[in-house]
């Protein structure tokens, strides 16, 4: 477990260091680049497991680099440590007498296209390949979480839309919604979920609302 978290930190650091270097250079000369640090949280569910509601909390941490195309448009590659999953609602716990949970740690690599509405409000849409680094399932059988990473696909895809509001020149608030365009699990492992979750349907799709605070490094290009 510790090795997995160390891997997350190393991957994020390897992405952050070039961002800081590019951002430092942008202060010395006119540049279309602007780096961002991202700290936030997710509320997730997985469509297909029979559980309802955005009940599974998780971390959303990482960085991005906005690259200005013109006055209105920019595109933004990001690298995020994002915790996804699902959790029984209170009603479902009463009905089944079980607390069932799925927790999935991922490295998200979204590429967003941003439209600057008025200098403060930015609307975005994009796609993201997600790499699953750890998947744990609590079937509600008093055993607790069990590592089921091998049953999940290594990579799945998300479509993302977001809205970002620049509170100050260096701080922004971001609300985003992501939905899976491919399943987290393949057909060969569906019998496992069918036995574990009574309401399981074909496929397991991420469905997440995320909120983050973003620190925008000062550069020559302002959003």
Which labels suit this protein?
Porin; single chain; elongated; 223 residues; alpha+beta; 3 helices; ten-stranded antiparallel sheet
Helix-strand category:
alpha+beta
Strand content: over 45%
What is the helix content?
10-25%
- How many whole angstroms does the radius of gyration measure? 19 Å
CATH hierarchy, class: Mainly Beta
Which shape, going by the Cα principal axes?
Answer: elongated
Q: How many beta strands in the DSSP annotation?
A: 10
Total domain modules: 1
**Major sheet:** 10 strands, antiparallel
| Cα separation of the termini | 39 Å
CATH topology: Porin
**Average pLDDT for all residues:** 83
Number of helices: 3
The appropriate CATH architecture is Beta Barrel
Order of H and E elements: HEEEHEEEEEEHE
Unreliable runs, pLDDT <50, ≥5 residues?
none
Brief characterization of the structure:
With 223 residues, this protein is α+β, with helices and mostly antiparallel strands.
